[in-house]
Amino acid sequence: MSLPELAIRRSVSVYIACAIAILLGTIAFQRLPIDLMPDVEIPRISVNTRYEGAAPEEVEQLITRRIENAVGSAPGVEEVESNSSENQSRVTVSFVWGTNLDEAANELRTRLDRIRNQLPEDADTPQIFKFDVNQFPIMFLSVSGEMEPRLLREFAEDQIQYRIERVPGVGQVNIFGGDRREIQVNLSLEKLRALDLSVNRVVDLLRQENANSPAGRVAEGGFDLSLRTEGQFQDINQIRNLVLTTRQGVPVYLRDVATVVDGSEEVTQLVRIDGKPGVRMNIQKQSGSNTVAVARGIRQEVERLNQEFPQVRVMVLNDTSRFIERSIATVEEHALIGGALAVLILLLFLHNLRSTLIVSLAIPISLIATFALLYFAGFTLNTVTLGGLALGVGRLVDDAIVVLENTFRHREAGKPRMEAALVGTQEVSTAIIAATLTTMIVFLPIAFLSGITSVLFSQLAYTVAFALFCSLLVALTLIPVLCSKYLRVETPSADRHPWLHRLAEGMRNALESLDLRYQRALGWALHHRKTVVIGAAASFALALLFFPYIGVELSPQTDESQVNVELEMAPGTRLEETDAVARRAEEILRQEVPEIESLVVQVGGGGFNAGTHRAQLQLRLVEPSRRQRSS
Length: 631
Prior knowledge:
The protein is α+β, with helices and mostly antiparallel strands. Helices cover 52% and strands 20% of the residues.
């Protein structure tokens, strides 16, 4: 028994199977993570080592070269790059695509442990970082208010940071700007010498006294209680009254040999938001979490923070999820438009409303079922997968059209609906299976790609293949069932459906006219074979001439309404000097770029390679529809 015959005889089972596919697809669509691009794991690991006070030459000789020799022979290593600068060394190891980064990181960690005793004692332990797209911040927040920089920083750390971190999906929140509290103990060397005290003695005492220590257990009634001594300093006076020693029975306090000041750390970074001091927060998501869902949760928390703390203003500076939402919405809109146009073309050519509705069911059922396959395959809902769905929309109805047309032909010949549906589907089943497999096999070479193109285009290929496979099943099962029950061959009545009758007659006349013109053009081409062949060859040659002038890039350029300006001075430049240059750049930007919506300036601080000689200006522009120039 063939599949179409089984479907027609068990029509209720087919309806139930379609309902299950729609249910699974709907649930999968709600749970599919939304992202801009597929999750790409670049096989690259960075080994970072700090060596305070060392010049670049010393860093290269004592650290970088030894790490390069240790990791260069690891399995799967394709390339090793290094960068030695003042106080720090960075060695980047690139592996061949397909390498398990967890195993590669463990291998590098083992090799680094072997050479740890060869590195300078003052150097920090080498740190291993895997390159992860999820490490890039998904959102930037600013905190501003009428507070001192130190109080503003403390408020952001105590009241805002923990609330952002508890949003589901948030991995880490980094704070930049403001002043951090620091208790400064300024010792007097003359007084220390007079009392025969050393600096190390004072430091050791401070460290020992500023600690909570366990004090054992004690039995109290029917309970065993754990005791501890609370020794951590609670206020600055406790530090001043710390007893260092005694001289002739008189205690010597820390205030006698030092000045204790409740101050701030040395300023190594500055943050200005629209010209005013502020605090900037970079938010990273957890690996595998939904970027759009995490960003929505953060925005809701920001609204609550602004309502609960009117003395500060928390503002979203940059939200990558907005661009993702717009991109996804655009692809969805165009996919819907494409589906609607496909249905319209079907109506114009079939000039039968029932036939159009039967065939059109193949589009939503195939698409919804594809969402379930995407979910179980571990894909995300991104521009690549949605682009694959939009690409396959027009092809989803081809098999159904062939089945319906052949069934329609048998119905016109006078056969009953069930027999016409069965015979019509069996006659073309081999043809539509071959046609679908031919289209699917086109994407087979993508399986042999490597690198980032394999990650991107493999999801596109799988999405199209899933959708075509679903459409083939629909054409061999659901379409025959619907044709056997609801297909009619009569044309629209001029009395009951005048507008549909006129449309059908007009389309029939147009198709007949188009058929006559095509026959004439085909006849002329067959009688002028040389001209047609030469013309085709000339067109191909002309296309090859223009090929070198076509630009090549991995992904199309986009306008995200954001521009970043990086400034770098000579290494060692003081923060004040760098800030002066950043202020001049800020003035130029405000004069030359009236499209600025917000401007955040960060001088110093930041990542591993940051320093007081670097600055970043982040421009947030108004929406593209509100400006004449592109970003």
